[in-house]
């Protein structure tokens, strides 16, 4: 099915089309390009023009370029524009303008991608749904997501992120959402802001792009909720709240087990129970926000509530799996909670709560009882108070339920030093330095949480734990 004809793409961008081509998709990466895609030669770590010839060889319908690259035939199927990123933005705006889709934009310090994927899951059962891939939420991810949106889309879910002030508003104006949702406001990217109030004001900029009569979905449980509410009301939005303090979409309880969360809620005075197949109070809150958004979009929250059970977190965002420690002993397994994609104080607290609620397996391995063990990497971009924010994790009420906390990175040294001696595991400067020690740290029956900012590279710990045969030397310390 044609997504962009040469004529339509040229009209949208003001560019010059060579050839009469039809594109079925839009791609910025030759590694994931599919035949029939329009390849967009963005300038990033590498100049996309260097890959145009390869894209055409792989079956790209055409390439969006600012010049004819070396090695590409002068009559090749191209869309030639003055600026490639500007043209991608123009494609995104044109795609948004030509559809009757109900659009929701999602942002927040924690939970953007999980909430976006929950929305994709539940809305897909109620109509054709288009949503961003992965975490495509920045200055090129948002226009790319919009440019990929089919005309017949009924629901579109656009994730919007930020690292610095001033990023969210222009992306929201491009998306023109009917509903804007802020999951939460927390100390993430704090180094770019004076305080958490500044983060809240930047998140609230998502309301700048709301369509007339639009709805703003706001977390009622935050110290910064008044900032969010005031910003929404200033744009004339209908404010809808969710959370334990909400009188609209109220969280009554969230009961955590090893692999699920049972949620009781009150949706505008109607009691509802729903299940999420992953543990975490934060997932319960995200699910509640999703139900509020579903109703604001004109879909049915009563249908959506049971469909939340069909969602599962993506890799690196709280997924849980059982790993065989010794292939010769079927019962010698441990559980791994992979949350290695991102971290800030709020998401760390949520992950520690999940670990504290988990159930180790007793009576297997060399240690008499299963343990709850955290392997925590540095939290990045926290600004001048980063040392204190790391140290403060030692005061979490959930640490009491853990057996050991291992720490990775120079910032996590502050937590390591603040931990009670009986909870203090090992510290390493890098994930690479800790990985060889794992066979002496893990035993059958344990539940292991690995969490840290992506830049801390604790995903290397996850990879090492998954590697077959690494665990033939079980932990021998009796505790």
From TrEMBL:
ATP binds at residues 108-114. Residues 24-79 form the Mur ligase N-terminal catalytic domain. Transmembrane segments: none annotated. Pathway: Cell wall biogenesis; peptidoglycan biosynthesis. It catalyses: D-alanyl-D-alanine + UDP-N-acetyl-alpha-D-muramoyl-L-alanyl-gamma-D-glutamyl-meso-2,6-diaminopimelate + ATP = UDP-N-acetyl-alpha-D-muramoyl-L-alanyl-gamma-D-glutamyl-meso-2,6-diaminopimeloyl-D-alanyl-D-alanine + ADP + phosphate + H(+). Keywords: ATP-binding, Cell cycle, Cell division, Cell shape, Cell wall biogenesis/degradation, Cytoplasm, Ligase, Nucleotide-binding, Peptidoglycan synthesis. It comes from the Bacteria. GO terms for molecular function: ATP binding; UDP-N-acetylmuramoyl-tripeptide-D-alanyl-D-alanine ligase activity; UDP-N-acetylmuramoylalanyl-D-glutamyl-2,6-diaminopimelate-D-alanyl-D-alanine ligase activity. It holds the Pfam family Mur_ligase. GO terms for biological process: cell division; cell wall organization; peptidoglycan biosynthetic process; regulation of cell shape. Residues 335-453 form the Mur ligase C-terminal domain. Residues 106-294 form the Mur ligase central domain. GO terms for cellular component: cytoplasm. It is found in: Cytoplasm. Its EC number is 6.3.2.10. InterPro entries: Mur-like_cat_sf, Mur_ligase_C, Mur_ligase_C_dom_sf, Mur_ligase_cen, Mur_ligase_N, MurCDEF_CellWall_CoF430Synth, MurE/MurF_N, UDP-N-AcMur_synth. Involved in cell wall formation. Catalyzes the final step in the synthesis of UDP-N-acetylmuramoyl-pentapeptide, the precursor of murein. Belongs to the MurCDEF family. MurF subfamily. HAMAP family: MurF. This is UDP-N-acetylmuramoyl-tripeptide--D-alanyl-D-alanine ligase. The lineage of its organism: Bacteria, Pseudomonadati, Pseudomonadota, Alphaproteobacteria, Rhodobacterales.
